Amino acid sequence: MKRMASVEIAAEHERILREIESTDTNCIGPTLRSVYDGQEHGLFMEKLDARIRNHDRDIERMCNHHFQGFVDSITELLKVRGEAQKLKSQVTETNQRLQNDGKELIRSMEELNQCRVQQRNIANTIDKLTHCLPVLEMYSRLQEQMSAKRYYPALCTLEQLEQTCLPRAGQYRFCSIMAENIPKLRTHIRDTAMSQLRDFLESIRKHSDKIGQTAVKQVHNHAVSGAQELVDFSPVYRCLHIYTVLGLRDVFENYYRKQRRKQARLVLQPHSNMHETLEGYRRYFNQIVGFFVVEDHVLHTTRGLVNRAYVEELWELALSKIVAALRTHSSYCDDPNLVLDLKNLMVLFADTLQGYGFPVSQLFDMLLEMREQYGEILLKRWNITFRQVLDQDNYSPIPVSTEEEYRHYTSQFPMQDPELEKLPFSEFVPKVYCQLKEFIYACLKYSEDLHLSSTEVDDMIRKSTNLLLTRTLSNCLQYAIKKKNVGLAELVQVIINTTHLEQSCHFLEEFISNITNVPPDTVNATKLYGTSTFKDARHAAEAEIYTNLNTKIDQFLQLADYDWMASPPAGGTLSASDYLIDLIAFLNSTFSVFTNLPGKVAQTACMSACKHISTSLMELLLNPEVRQISIGALHQLNADVKECESFARAGPVAGFQGDTLLLAFSDLRQLLDLFTQWDWSTYLVDYGKPTCKYLRVNPHISLALLEKMKETSRKNNVFAQFRKTDRDRQKLIDTIIKQLRNLITQQQA
After folding, report:
1. From the record, what ranges are coiled-coil (predicted)?
2. What topology is assigned to 559-748 in CATH?
């Protein structure tokens, strides 16, 4: 084993030696370290010494082999040394000369080198200045722009300075100072731009009235212009651009819209006394126009600062506020001229905003709504006018003495074949007719510029005129007819006047058609109710005549003073009562005035008066307070009825056929004939037959009257039982009463 280990060690040492011989000396460190790390260091050293000795012997052999050549070389070298000394002297001398000559060159080279260093420094300086000068120039430009308040260009310059110029300039102190100032400058620009925007917003708020006024005038005068000629929008554009560059566009948009919404609410809030003058409405509308003119321009020039939805939202808000304000304030107005001026102002307001693209149909709907209010105001105004006309009228036919007077009245009221000496109607007829036309003109004025068709205008005017006729004028006529102290002559004139006004209605129809250009026979065209209005007024006047006439008759009848216990006439003819004679005279005088009335009216009045007299006399007979009636009283009443019948036969009013007027007294006549002639047998036998002489005598009335006569016989003839004639008459009355009662019972059965 030891032997084998020795062999391995020897082989390893041999390898190491070969490696040392063949390897670069710089790389034998690890090899030597392996020797020292091993435990056979001495043995290796022995081998190394043996190897060195071998190499020394090889070197010695080699040197011995080349020694002669070496000697020859030394000999040659000695020969050369002399020459070398000469050469050295020459080289030294040449070198000295060269050194002397080179000093100038070196000095020139040093100067050249210094120049090149300077040139390089200059080039570097120029290069640095090339990068720094734009910074300084741009900063100088920035300062000029800031001084000139050109903030958007300043912000663009600032952006270029920060992003491009300063990074190229390098790390210089002035660059650092500039870089530190950049955020401050941005903040200053932003705050200044916002301040200018606030000033702009405040300015347009204060001057929105003037802006709107100018815009309205331009539309009214058909001038081509825009809001840019009225307002300097540069603060808005500048602030928008600045905030966009700063990345704050959303912030700016929200702020602008919020502030304008606040201003919109202020603009849309009317003054509490706006309704008092037209100027209040004009200022209100001008402010709104000014607001939306500005917003429309901003919408079309800023690309998104406000959008269509935002503007439409504001306009919807405005419409609701405007309509509400107009409903409230216009309701206080009672002047039709102010309403008309307000309507014209609203039309101009709507047309102006429509020209800017805003929908205004709600405003025109509001105008139509106000049309109803305007109509009501007109009706109130014309109610006063009509009453004044009626109160101031003298209710007498208009006297006409000259052709000029005739033309004057016929120019005011259409007539056909009038008498030149006298017009049958009074002053209120032409005045009322003229006022009707004035009302129609007033209605037409409101309908102008509402973008309505001729048919719609015609319909509106006709409906309003119908309201004037059926409500206002009708009430005024009723007032004139029903007022206290109106006489029969006045009522007669009212009937004549309304008759002529009724006949003029078709002229009013033509008048409306002429101003609206709509034929009166157009399908679905509204017809005027004038005919029915005047006809109703005439009927009311006729009824009032009948009522007044009956009232006058009642006043005469109140003077009646019958002696219900009068004795039978001894002989001769009884005269009519004084009150009745006066009544007949009054009726004759009254009916003479009725000559201008339509025939049926006069006839009806006369018949009504006769019936009322007859009924009143019958009521006197049947009055419960009159408990006793003598035959003598019946003879006096009979004389009065004969006077009435004479009046009826005389024909106080033309047009009655035969004895038609006498029929008003037929009930009373048959009753009095029955009692004064004591023809009970005929009455009881023929009762119920069409040919009965006393067909109009009611058994109830006969019974009541007999009861009163029976009572008279009982109380006034205390000794009647002692006289046979009186006893017989009493028995006869009792018998007749009994028969009448049986007759009534049978009739009821």
Report:
1. 77-115
2. Methane Monooxygenase Hydroxylase; Chain G, domain 1 (1.20.58)
